[in-house]
Structures are given as C-alpha cells and as structure tokens.
Amino acid sequence: MSSRKEFIVIFFVNKAIGHGNSGVEHAQFYRADIFRQAHQPFKMIYSDLLPKLHEHAAEWHLQESEVIGLYDYFLSDDPDDYLRNGLREVSEYHEEVLWDQTHTQRRFDRQTTGGYLETIQRVKRYSDERKLYLVDDDRVILTNGNHKIMWHYRDSGSQKKQPVSIRLFNFKGRDYFFQTYEALVMFFYEQLNQTYPNSLYIIDRGQEHEEALIHLKRQGAGVKLLDVVHAAHLAQFEGAHPLWNNYYQYMFDHFDDMSAVINATEVQTQAMKADLSRVGQKQLDKITTIPVGGVETVMPARHWSGKEARFVTASRLHPEKHITQIVSAIKLLRDQGLNATLTIYGDGGDIPHIKKSISELKLQKFVTLAGLSQHVIDDLKQYDAFVSASYSEGFGLTYIEAISDALPIATYANFFGAQELVKEGLNGHLATFERHQDATEKNVVQLSHAMAAVFQSTAHYADLSRGAEAVAKKYQTQEIAKKWSALIRRVNHES
Q1: What's the CA gap between 295 and 474, in Å, rounded?
Q2: For residue 468, which of 171, 214, 366, 427 is within the disulfide window of CB 3.0 to 4.6 Å?
Q3: Distances in whole angstroms, Cα of residue 247 to Cα of each of 20, 128, 228, 252, 327
Q4: Facing residues of 393 across strands?
Q5: Helices 458-472, 397-404: inter-axial angle, 10-degree rounding
Q6: Is the pLDDT of residue 452 over 80?
Q7: Any residues with CB less than 8 A from the CB of 116 and at least 6 apart, and which?
Q8: What is the pLDDT averaged over residues 243-272?
Q9: In percent, how much of the chain has pLDDT > 70?
Q10: Using CB atoms within 10 A of its CB, is residue 133 exposed (0-12), middle (13-18) or buried (19+)?
C-alpha cells in the first residue's frame, strides 16, 4: 500500500442509535457535520439488532448512504451495492405479538425499517429461586426473501444474553456458521475490508469492534484505528495497577495497536498521559485532544432582567444524570426567595422518577418536562442559565451548546467536561460533590449555592455571560475541523 494513498472511507463505529441518544451518538452527529462540510467521505457502522435503524437515522438527519447496519448488510440482495449506496428503499415498521393462553408474550414478529422480518421466540420457565415464571427471548430469526440469519441466546451471567450458534444463509450465495456473535462481527469486518481495504476506523463504542479490527490489523490488513474516549478512562489505581473504565480496558490493553486515542478535553489528555506513564506505557504522543462538539456561531453576551431565574437542562434522562437533584435544588432556591424555574429537555427511563420528584415537591408550576429537543441551541436561547447535576462528563456537549448561547452555567465540578469548559467565576459556578449515596442531600445544597451565585446580581450575570461568549469562541467548528484534518493527515502519512 502506498504511504501517500488517502483513506478510501472513514468509518464511525458504534453499536446503536435510537430516538433518545447518549452523548456518544451526538458526538458522532457533530463529527458527521464537520466531515460533510470538508467533503470527507464517511459511513456510520451500527452493529446491534435495530428494527427501527432507518427511522432513527432519518430522525437524526443521516443519509442512507452514510449508514451501515450489520444485519442490513448480511441480509441484502446485493451487499456490495448496499455498502456503497445504503438502503435503496426503507420499510415502514410494524409488529405483531402472539400471546399464549396464560397471557404471556411468546412470539414477536417485527417488520423492520431495513426490510427484513425479525421473529423473536420466547421461552417460559419457572424459577425455583425466585418463585415465579420467567419469560426470556430464546431464538431469533431474521429473513429477507431467501436470505436468513438465526441464532439462540445464551445467558452469560453478569452480561446481557449473548447470541450463539449463529447461522447465516445465502450470503453472496453461501451459508456460514458462527459459534459466537464476536465471530460474526469478525466476519463482517473481513468482508468490509475486502471492499474498503485502506480505511480508517474511528471507534466510539464496542469492544467487539476493537477485537475484530485489531485482529485484522495484525493479519496485515491496512486498517488504521482511532479510539475516542467519551467518559472517564480510569476507575482507580489498585496499588500501582490501574483499573480502567470497562469501556476502555481492551483499548488500553492493546494501546500499541491504536494510531491515536482522542479525548474531548485537554484536562483528560494530560490525566491519561500521567496515568499511562505510571505503568511505563510509551508512545504517549498518540494521545490527542479534539473536542467532540463545537459551535458554528457565538451569540453576544446577555443581560438578566432580575425578575425570574429561568434554568434549563438538557440530557439523556437517566439516573446517572441526577435530574432529580436539580429539581430539589430548585425547591431550595424558591424557598430562599429566588423566583427560579426549570425546563428539562430530554428523553429516557428516568422520567417517572423525575415526575414523582416534581409532584412530591409541589413544583408542577415551576418545573417543565419539555421532551426531546431536535434543535438544542435554538431551544436554550429562551432561558437564562444552564444547569447540570452529572457527576461525570467526558465533555458535555450541552455545556458547549449553552455556552454558545452565552448562558452562564451552574454544575457539579465533574471530570472532565465541567472542569474544562466551566471556569469558576468566569462563565459559571462549580459545585463540589461527593459520589456516595449518603451525600445526595449535601450535594443538592452545594448545587443550589452554585445556581444562586449565577443570579447574585444583574452585573455579575452580565460578567458571566460575557465569559461564556469568550469561552465559546475557542470551540468554533472551523477550529475543530482543522484538528480532525491534521490528525487524519498524520495517520495517513504514517501508513
């Protein structure tokens, strides 16, 4: 392979996409916008079984030619054409459920947006330990005409159920058998490498992807691997031995196989280098910083009327985001005489818990669940300050979105996003916190102090807003695009 040959295509590697996504997916969407503007070809790989993949891809403004679904590929009449052009026709999703005489769901039939039929057969068994009947997915069959994939599930204990004994029928005219899902993923990348032999893979999520691609690389394939770190990389040190975040353990164990490791903040980059140097790891220069989000435009500084403190937050509504702590902080502020309100944007499984908290604190008139926002930056403009109660943020895209609107921020001083993007007294206020559950009440008090500090006076608010404007200018899209371009050129040159 010529050392000067450009990458045929760049792949963004992930497991899933949905209606409500995490920061990982939003980071990918932002990166996609940058690459489109630079006319750099890319495709997004999704490996999970996603019956509404194409519905969600359209929802997040992805073109069919930009999306590769693993199961779409294996069930395609023309896999090579699918890789080049994407799905030619999207199907409408619908499902049917078969119930047995005991009112138990025993079979699901789903017409997926990818055009194939998904059949899930469920098994019912009695648990002597739990003294109840359990119903689990047992067998899955995917069919598209004379193309078929089928497997059983195996209970893997601490992990979710794993597909085993996978049979693939009529893929390019041949039948295949894979004992494990990991073997199927390996086969997928072997096939992908035949079509795109000189490619760059930006891995956002999935150890099985890392395993397959590293195997390919060690077999002589001309692949290059970039691993993007979206969360805290280190759990703790046990003596002199690092306990890495489970998401990144495999990457650190195979650090030499990576062309680059990308952090969203310089704070994390320096921390990672220090942690790796403690265990004697070399080649630390491959660790670099590229923000996972930025802004096209920066709004001018704002002023506060002094009447109502309108807080807003936006995130995946998951317990780890601690939205109920923000609700409790609003209660404290109102009891102290500040006319504080809160609007919550997002979707997720913690909504019932949040609604309960709002009701118990009698805040229905002052706290609003606004649903998922498709235009966060525009929506945030309606408010006075952004607030977050997350204990950990690899970057915090919503911080940047808020800063671009010149909104002051009140947040816990989490690693790494808050400590990079929020400067105490410049564009917001940071609250100390403790991670153990018994500290929740104390944490809420600290958060309420940071929130109140934003509105201590109209003059101070104006200073914070001017500070937000100044910080935002450091994260403009064109500057981030330059960082990606430089990194890709470097990796390509090294090939």
Answers
A1: 9
A2: 427
A3: 20, 34, 11, 10, 30
A4: 416
A5: 110
A6: yes
A7: 71, 72, 75, 142, 143, 144, 147
A8: 95
A9: 97
A10: exposed
Tokens encoding 82:
């699918």
Q: Tokens representing 213?
A: 């691609």
Amino acid in position 46:
Y
Q: Which amino acid is at 38?
A: A
User: What are the residue ranges spanned by the domains of the chain?
Assistant: 10-88+184-289, 94-182, 309-474
Cα distances (angstroms) measured from residue 90 to each of 76, 87, 144, 249, 384: 13, 7, 13, 37, 42
Is the dihedral angle over the CA atoms 78, 210, 398, 39 positive or is it negative?
negative
- d(CA 34, CA 39) in angstroms, rounded, equals 9
Q: 28: which residues sit within 8 A by CB, 6+ positions away?
A: 12, 14, 44, 204
pLDDT tens digits along 347-385: 999 999 999 999 999 999 999 999 999 888 899 999 999
Amino acid at residue number 366? F
Q: How far is residue 335's CA from residue 414's CA, in Å, rounded to a whole number?
A: 27
Q: Which of 289, 310, 410 is nearest to 368 (CA)?
A: 310
pTM metric for this prediction: 0.84
Asked if 303 contacts 333 with a C-beta cutoff of 8 angstroms, the reply is no
Q: For the domain with range 309-474, which CATH number is right: 3.40.50.2000, 3.20.20.70, 3.40.50.720, 3.90.79.10? A: 3.40.50.2000
Give how far Cα 210 sits from Cα of 8, 223, 251, 254, 276, Å: 20, 12, 7, 9, 20
d(CA 389, CA 402): 15
User: Tens of pLDDT along 97-155?
Assistant: 998 888 888 899 999 999 999 999 998 887 788 788 888 889 999 999 999 999 999 87
The CATH class of 10-88+184-289 is alpha beta
Question: Do 10-88+184-289 and 309-474 come out as alike in CATH topology?
Answer: yes
